[in-house]
Amino acid sequence: MKNKFNIVLALFAFVGFSSCESEDNYELSEPVGTYRIVTPLSGESIVLNELTPTNPGIALTWTPMDYTTPSVITYTVQLAPNGSDFSNAQDLATTTSTNATIQSAQLNLAALTAGATPFVQSAVDIRIKATSGAVGAQSTYSDTITYLITAYGCLGQYAVGAGIPSAGWNWDSPLSLICDDNILTSRTNLINGTFRFFTVSGDWNSGRNYPYYVTNGYKISTSLENANDGDQNFKFNGTPGTYRIKIDENIKTVTLAQSTVTSGFEPTSTWLVGAATPGGWSWSGNNETELPLITNGIYEVPLTMNSGETFRVFLGNNGGDSWGLGDRNFPYYVSNGYTIDSELINALDGDSNFRYTGPTAMRMFKIDSVAKVISVD
User: What's the pTM?
Assistant: First the structure.
């Protein structure tokens, strides 16, 4: 019995000694030296094309990283806004090799998410994160390169608020604005209430209120105003109903159009055609300028008007040359008792068109058929 007791004590002593010895000899796996991105070089660029989404957007190679404890090293390609600290980096690829290729479509989305401006060369930062599989290993990072990307398309946005009954002030069913070539659109029911636009669904900090657009030089439909509440949201002051909301980030406008259809041309709209308008005397493509009904009896559109040039108001659009669908010239409005802005005169050409005499600039053209006023603001 005594011998058995001594054996047990010996075993406990051995285990305790071994345990202490393991803890004393335990070492963390530490990075050795540095590693760097070899290709591409910082400052190189690419123009992405939506027609070739699977083409390489960037092909990266880098030198290997070493750790004190041999193990498999995993590399992650990270992209972040130019000049940032990578706190909101996007992981584009993970590999155990020292190279990775990111397809154009994936790189395009990542660049837009990082704030790239569509169709304009924009800088993003890229680095490689290395992680050892050894216990206690610390991640380490390569040098950072700047890559210049000309992205296409754009990211959708969102709107919530009491002025949009289907959304309300929550994220259960936000209004989605679909983006195409930097123009965001959506149809929704509007009532006289407030709302705000957001770039990220569910993120209150991504909001863009009324002053945001004013400060950035946007022309905004007069049926939308600053609510002057705590958040300076948008407030819809027009006739409640269904409207098409459009944010054109190319020409910087926020507009509404009263809507009665789900697609195609709005029968409630009229149209401006002429050399004073961006599309000239043409119905080709989208050259005509839509003059939409923004509330009962009021038609309005922001557009760049060319000084000294002429135009006319047309009543219909069938998707092609719509000259024969009815039109209204300068004398029509005079004979119907309209007060017309002094910057608009009778062109006294063969069709008695309008002639715009103001400066070439982005202007708000408005026809109020209730008050019978035509203005250029």
Answer: 0.75
